[in-house]
Amino acid sequence: MIAITGANGQLGRLVIQQLLNTVPASQIIAAVRHPENAQDLATLGVKLRQADYDQPSSLLSAFQGVEKVLLISSSEVGWRVPQHKAVIEAAKQAGVKLLAYTSLLHADRSTLALAGEHLATEQLLADSGLPYTLLRNGWYTENYLASIPTALKYGALAGCAKEGRIASASRADYAAAAAAVLTKEDQAGLVYELAGDEAYSLTELAAEISLQSGTTVVYQDMAEADYYTMLQQAGLPDGLAHILADSDTAASKGDLFDQSRQLSQLTGKATLSLKAAVAQALKS
Q1: Which CATH architecture has domain 2-137?
Q2: Domains of the chain, residue spans
Q3: 34-83 pLDDT, tens per residue?
Q4: Is the pTM of this model over 0.85?
Q5: Which of 38, 182, 194, 263 is least enclosed, having the fewest CB within 10 Å?
């Protein structure tokens, strides 16, 4: 059986959808904090098991009889390392044969503030003796698409990435990669640097938005501190504002760029293009 942690989240649900294409629903476990919020998955035949990163006993129960686990990194930045450690220890105790972890693109050399917890988790896995695979996910295209309504309103796409190249991919692309690893043989010990086939700058993103919407949008590059303040003033929580501003600065240094195309090689399908992604966002 295959267990997906955080299965009620955006990525987790997409992974389950991908798995259902090749794996019987009865062999898929949605490990979720609140099973009552995932009853629609149960209607598909997927098994629900309560699993809370902060309750190790629930994790051990959730992993009973499980062969492979996908550990989707916790959304609770700052608390990820102890939470991930609990998952790893429970998986080892339950006799799991492979744990795949959604890490960060080039975590071992990334300057993103988010990299620290991912790298610490990778070290926990290395020390655990548990067979594991690293899915080093790049940036989600959706992180930038969410800014389109504001960009259209003000005629400007703000950021602090300068002309850094961003090889982002959609959540669905990363989900397909995770499902591929979980259904392939001999994946233990592999490290995948996952990113989109196509890279772009925020200037190019603004131009694509302009082209498809018919509204002129320009990229407004700012100092990181100014962009951070702007995000705060727009109502974003302090932590999220910091992450977004920091990631843009990292993008300016090339930390969101990769041209290995390991993602599309793994899935056998080209990643969603920037043109298609913008078109989808404008329709929604």
Answers
A1: 3-Layer(aba) Sandwich (3.40)
A2: 2-137, 144-165+197-257+272-283
A3: 999 999 999 999 999 999 999 999 999 999 999 999 999 998 888 999 99
A4: yes
A5: 38
pLDDT of residue 234: 87
Under 8 Å between Cβ of 142 and 170? yes
Cα 19 from Cα 2, distance rounded (Å): 9
Distance between CA atoms of residues 85 and 53, nearest Å: 9
Interval 140-178: pLDDT, tens: 999 999 999 999 999 999 999 999 999 999 999 999 999
Distance CA 215, CA 205 (A): 13
Asked whether 29 and 66 are in contact (CB, 8 A), the reply is: yes
* List of residues 6+ apart from 168 with CB closer than 8 A: 138, 139, 140, 141, 143, 144, 195, 196, 256
Nearest-CA neighbor of 99 among 5, 238, 231?
5
- Distance (Å, whole) CA 232 – CA 239: 9
215 and 52 Cβ atoms separated by less than 8 Å: no
pLDDT tier at 284, thresholds 50, 70, 90:
confident
CATH number of 144-165+197-257+272-283: 3.90.25.10
